[in-house]
Amino acid sequence: MITLNNVSKRFDSFEAVQSVSLSIKSGEIHGIIGASGAGKSTLLRMINLIEHPDEGDVIIDGETLNHLRGKRIRQIRQSLAMIFQGYHLINNKTVFDNVVTPLELAKTPKTDRAEQVLESLRFVGMEELKNQYPSQLSGGQKQRVAIARAIVNQPKVLLCDEPTSSLDPNTTAEVLEVLQRINQEFGVTVIIVSHEMEVIKSICTRVTVMADGRVYKEIEIDPTGVHKMEHSAEGFINRLKPSGDNEHA
Ligand SMILES: Nc1ncnc2c1ncn2[C@@H]1O[C@H](COP(=O)(O)OP(=O)(O)OP(=O)(O)O)[C@@H](O)[C@H]1O
């Protein structure tokens, strides 16, 4: 269980996230949606403390992350993997070497690394391209490598920051299918930030709608795919424009 308790984040005098409280259950696929500048990425980045909250607490399975120090915080952060819109692959390393990096950092025994990397690449359908470099891959393939790298250490949580925003609809569907399998087969909690309602509706079980640094609405999506959304929230989301040319909500 991930609990954010009145978390706030300021950049100079601008309050990007304002006293947000939110609970995310283990094993759910949770969407965070809102217009550009609503504070979605900042909120996501506070869950693994890439951004440290100015106020409030980030509580993961009963431990207050922002109060921890040293080895314990490193252990917990290792269980919180992340993928990004821009993939963040290392361009002068092969696919295999990108995916092995977290195992090197975690000091996994060398004899175990290759099998874990190949297993991870197999899961995302990228094993055959293990010797390629990122520049030789399509956007969807790069994101699948980034996902393989994120899951190679068997995280409990996968944080996804606009994972499909650079991809076409078919590739988006493929990447979302991989995220759904990670959730279903490994029980990984998946949190997806997106400005695209179609992405959120297709795989999320619960959605937080953000506007102006605050939680605007919490929405349940039922498993049959028919979402129980209040009219006002749906109207709000449908007015969101593609990223880049959004006005603040
Ligand atoms: N490191 C930073 N320094 C200064 N301002 C920042 C920083 N990070 C975010 N902001 C500002 O905080 C606000 C919220 O940004 P954030 O990226 O969280 O929004 P978002 O909802 O994810 O939008 P987008 O989809 O455009 O990324 C924006 O106005 C942004 O300019």
UniProtKB/TrEMBL annotation:
Q: Does the keyword Hydrolase apply?
A: no
One GO molecular function term?
Answer: ATP hydrolysis activity
InterPro entries per the UniProt record, alphabetical: AAA+_ATPase (IPR003593), ABC_transporter-like_ATP-bd (IPR003439), ABC_transporter-like_CS (IPR017871), MetN_ABC_transporter-like (IPR050086), P-loop_NTPase (IPR027417)
Which domain of life does the protein's organism represent? Answer: Bacteria
Question: Which biological process terms from the Gene Ontology are attached to this UniProt entry?
Answer: amino acid transport
PROSITE patterns (UniProt xref): ABC_TRANSPORTER_1, ABC_TRANSPORTER_2
A GO-annotated cellular component:
plasma membrane
Keyword Transmembrane attributed: no
Family the UniProt entry places it in: Belongs to the ABC transporter superfamily.
The name under which this protein is listed is ABC transporter
User: Which organism is this entry from?
Assistant: Halalkalibacillus sediminis
